[in-house]
Amino acid sequence: MAESPSAVDVRAQQCAEVTLRPATVDDIPALRALGEAVVPPTYGPIDAAYAQRMLDEWWTAERFADTLPRVRMLVAERDGQVVAMSSFGRLSASHRDFPHVTGDREVMWKLYVHPDHHGLGIGSRLLAEVESMTEGDELWLEVVDGNVRAYDFYVSRGFREVERVTDREWPDDIWLRKPLGGAR
Ligand SMILES: CC(C)(COP(=O)(O)OP(=O)(O)OC[C@H]1O[C@@H](n2cnc3c(N)ncnc32)[C@H](O)[C@@H]1OP(=O)(O)O)[C@@H](O)C(=O)NCCC(=O)NCCS
């Protein structure tokens, strides 16, 4: 009788069924739907108003149409469905203000996996791809204070906390950095 595959084999096979590719304008409705699926469970327990603000500001069709030409964006597809995405690029190309930063930074702005597809290695694959496509010797990212799962995920993959940006109204942003290249 054939042996049943282990959980590790199943996970590896499920991850192998996932393809990564650059996002296009045709993906915008799927990106919005991904945001609706992943943003509320991620940030709602931290601050429900903040979760809604994120969706309204950063996950709209207009915002994606504006950022796609300026930011590098990857999607992960499984069975023809967009199940995850990541965006990254230079801090100076962003529309946001970062008064605490001098100089420029390579930043991964987003890494989001649909909750039905967590734990299959998709986030790790996207992160590795972003690291390999990043020009420069370090990669930065922000984690919202209280997003412990994401924080632990990044620390286990070589990121270290550098600074915290406080905001009276909203949760703090914690900036993490990972050396790339030889120290990867
Ligand atoms: C953090 C996140 C990107 C990780 O993606 P993923 O595809 O689930 O990650 P992987 O399968 O590659 O790796 C899973 C790792 O994350 C941990 N993990 C986090 N959430 C998990 C879940 N729901 N199920 C299983 N593992 C989970 C595991 O401990 C595992 O770590 P290990 O491999 O060191 O044991 C994903 O959980 C996510 O999209 N979270 C919500 C959005 C978010 O917080 N994004 C980051 C914004 S800064």
UniProtKB/TrEMBL annotation:
The keyword Acyltransferase applies. One of its GO terms (molecular function) is acyltransferase activity, transferring groups other than amino-acyl groups. Keywords: Acyltransferase, Transferase. Transmembrane segments: none annotated. It comes from the Bacteria. Residues 18-181 form the N-acetyltransferase domain. CDD domains: NAT_SF. PROSITE patterns: GNAT. InterPro entries: Acyl_CoA_acyltransferase, Bact_Acetyltransf, GNAT_dom. PANTHER family: AMINOALKYLPHOSPHONATE N-ACETYLTRANSFERASE-RELATED-RELATED. This is GNAT family N-acetyltransferase. It comes from Nocardioides ganghwensis.
